[in-house]
Amino acid sequence: MSNTDFVLAVEDLTVSFDGFKAVDKLNMYIDKNELRVVIGPNGAGKTTVLDLICGKTKSTAGSIKFKNRELTKLSEHEIVRAGVGRKFQTPSIYENLSVYQNLEVSYPKGRGVFGSLFFKRSDEVMAQVYKIAKEIMMEDILHTEAALLSHGQKQWLEIGMLLMQEPELLMLDEPVAGMSAKERDQTAELLNRICQNRSVIVIEHDMEFVKKIAHKVTVLHQGKILAEGAMDKVQANEKVIEVYLGH
Ligand code: ADP
Ligand code: MG
User: Ligand 1 — pocket residues by CB below 6 A?
Assistant: First the structure.
């Protein structure tokens, strides 16, 4: 494929596990500052798509271009450095460190040519910690130990740890699972803010939440796209109702 303006262009992406195609010739295009939600029944291949994009799983065939750069040949670390952040279902924060320290340790190491000038770096890091803490609604609890946070706050902290790297594409797998109604609303607001200067892919089951955040929805079923488009259109799609929403 020739160069495009899409942040992410996935083409004919396929992975088979012992002959079973978990993702089957998938095509998906994500715009700059787009918030895309991926829905679909359990086992549809949603998590596997994120695993392929972040390099955790290697594809069998097809291409993943991030800002026109082929990701399928890169390692997980190279993909992070290229600007792709991914949050897994269970939060991986440091429970015995403070909110501040969790954010601080997530600052990319050796960024920029002045990375060795310690005094400059520490100012930069501090400014970035405050900026992100505000974004994730935790500026007033910077010195709280992470172990004491609510389930929702732990999820936000992990999103903040990813934001410390300023990813241009952020991927979140079921971010509101286990959250209270209020935390879900706050997470919707958070995601609406953070997609203002990056693209975001969210896997989610909670349709009330999806409605609040999705620019477009992709419905996966058996590793393939069943439907794609605006939320109301997808919700009215008979095939989607049959395999997913009707249950
Ligand atoms: P979803 O996130 O939509 O629920 P997954 O992407 O987790 O679905 O899984 C899609 C299918 O691929 C499932 O049948 C799952 O068992 C299978 N699968 C996922 N990862 C692997 C793997 N590493 N090895 C073998 N099978 C896998
Ligand atoms: Mg999954």
Answer: 17, 22, 40, 42-48
Q: What is residue 113's predicted lDDT score, i.e. its pLDDT?
A: 46
Domains parsed from the chain with CATH numbers = 1-83+167-247 (3.40.50.300), 92-165 (no CATH)
Going from the Cα of 79 to the center of ligand 1, the distance in angstroms, rounded, reads 21
| Residue type for position 120 | K
Residues of the chain with pLDDT below 70 are 1-2, 110-121, 247
Nearest bound ligand to the CA of residue 88: 2
Give the closest residue (by CA) to ligand 1 atom 6.
45
List the one residue out of 31, 8, 39 whose CA is nearest residue 210.
39
Structure tokens at 162: 């990813």
- Which of 147, 170, 156 has its CA nearest to residue 94? 147
pTM, to two decimals:
0.94
Question: What is the bridge-based pairing of β-strands 8-17 and 61-66?
Answer: antiparallel
